[in-house]
Amino acid sequence: MINDHHTYEQLKIITSPENVMADEYLHNHTYTRLGGKADFYVTPETYKEVQEIVKLSINGNIPFTMLGNGSNLIVKDGGIRGIVLNLGRLTAIDADGTTLVAQSGARIIDASQKALSHAFTGLEFACGIPGSVGGALFMNAGAYGGEVKDVLESAVVVDAKGDLLHLSADDLDLEYRSSNIPDKGYIVLEATFRLEEGSYDAIKAVMDDLTFKRESKQPLEYPSCGSVFKRPPGYFAGKLIQDSKLQGKQIGGAQVSLKHAGFIINLDSASATEYINLIHFIQNTVKAKFGVNLEREVKIIGEDLGV
């Protein structure tokens, strides 16, 4: 574990001392309620602070990890070494004409609500996605037939060297549940969405319908990472899991949801290891029964205990 007093002091100089926590349990910051400690958990307030933290990690050879808001993520029980960055303090959302500019720490749900308030159409699909704006770009998030790729115009990012870049949507190689953001080492700071004028009542009706569908079909009453698997070509992941008789299957405190087979819930103080083992069990069972490879949509990061 990195417990470098100098790094701690440097981080407190870059941003406010209250924005830097040492030995912080990441299960406090993930939707699954899983994850060991981060050496340094940092929540900067400006783009400049993000740049300076990246440069500190480079110059000090300190491991660096972007956490996002922890919604589509499993952090292992051993936690994460070095600096873990969360942009949850960057939450501004502004409208200009039919353009919506949202900082990366804002929830994509809140961006869709802001669009509704201006009667802008295009972001209705995002009204139930629990992730941040930055996380939505990272994985080209989508639901109910829409995806970020459909409405994203541009983004502001910090690259792996700490430089600020203004990129077009095409620069991000957005594909089904993927982008080049992880490969390039980009940190998304801001997204600009190009929307269209619409009818407030019609937009609200669509969002209300999607919210009802989500709340009635998804196990939102338990901690989870959302949809665990990508949709395999020609199939539905949840249907394959259900047809494999795996609903209710439990390893430790992790369980395949009885409400929606595509979800794994933290039913009873699960460890990340139990959660991950259940993912592997599902993949192996579906492969054996149907010959279909289920690819994870959720990201797994961090170290195992004892590493």
Structure notes:
The structure is a single chain. With 307 residues, the chain is of the alpha+beta class. It has 3 domains: 80 residues, Uridine Diphospho-n-acetylenolpyruvylglucosamine Reductase, domain 2 (2-Layer Sandwich), CATH 3.30.43; 110 residues, Uridine Diphospho-n-acetylenolpyruvylglucosamine Reductase, domain 3 (2-Layer Sandwich); 83 residues, Uridine Diphospho-n-acetylenolpyruvylglucosamine Reductase, domain 1 (Alpha-Beta Complex), CATH 3.90.78. It has 8 helices and 19 strands. A hairpin with a 6-residue loop joins strand 17 and strand 18. Helix 1 runs antiparallel to helix 2. The longest helix has 19 residues. The protein is globular. The model has no long low-confidence stretch (mean pLDDT 95).
Classify the secondary structure makeup into a structural class.
alpha+beta
CATH classification class of the largest domain: Alpha Beta
Strand runs, count: 19
- Taken together, the total number of domains comes to 3
Question: What's the CATH topology label of the largest domain?
Answer: Uridine Diphospho-n-acetylenolpyruvylglucosamine Reductase, domain 3
Characterize the biggest β-sheet.
Answer: 5 strands, antiparallel
What do the pLDDT scores average to?
95
